[in-house]
């Protein structure tokens, strides 16, 4: 079972990529920055979920 942080992190990364892309297209630097921040936050959350998954795997709680 995949940890919910991995799923939520992936969604935040996707949302951030969309925001950043729209910001690039419209020249909206604030939206670009928000998108970059969302992507970074999502990447970190995804990594935390990966660590939790690995810990469960090692503990035998698949």
Fold and architecture overview:
The protein is an all-alpha fold. The chain has helices at residues 4-26, 29-59. Helix 1 (4-26) packs antiparallel against helix 2 (29-59). The chain has two helices and no strands. The chain starts with a helix and ends with a helix.
In a nutshell, what does this entry contain?
It contains 2 helices and no strands. By secondary structure, the protein is mainly alpha-helical.
Topology:
Blueprint: H1 4-26, H2 29-59
Helix pairs in contact: 1-2
For this entry, give a set of tags.
mainly alpha; 62 residues; single chain; rod-shaped
- The tally of helices reads 2
Helicity level, as a percent range? over 70%
Cα gyration radius (Å)? 15 Å
Low-confidence stretches: none
- Please give the largest β-sheet: none
In percent, how much strand structure appears in the residues? Answer: under 5%
What order do the SSEs take from the amino end to the carboxyl end, as H and E?
HH
Shape, per Cα inertia axes: rod-shaped
Mean pLDDT across all residues, rounded? 94
* Count of strand segments: 0
Distance from N terminus to C terminus (CA atoms, Å) equals: 7 Å
Strand-pairing-aware structural class: mainly alpha
């Amino acid at each position: 079972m995949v940890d919910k942080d991995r799923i939520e992190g992936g969604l935040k990364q996707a949302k951030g990529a969309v925001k950043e892309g729209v910001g690039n297209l419209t020249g909206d630097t604030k939206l670009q920055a928000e998108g970059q921040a969302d992507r970074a936050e999502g990447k970190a959350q995804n990594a935390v979920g990966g660590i939790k998954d690995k810990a469960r795997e090692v503990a035998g709680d698949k």
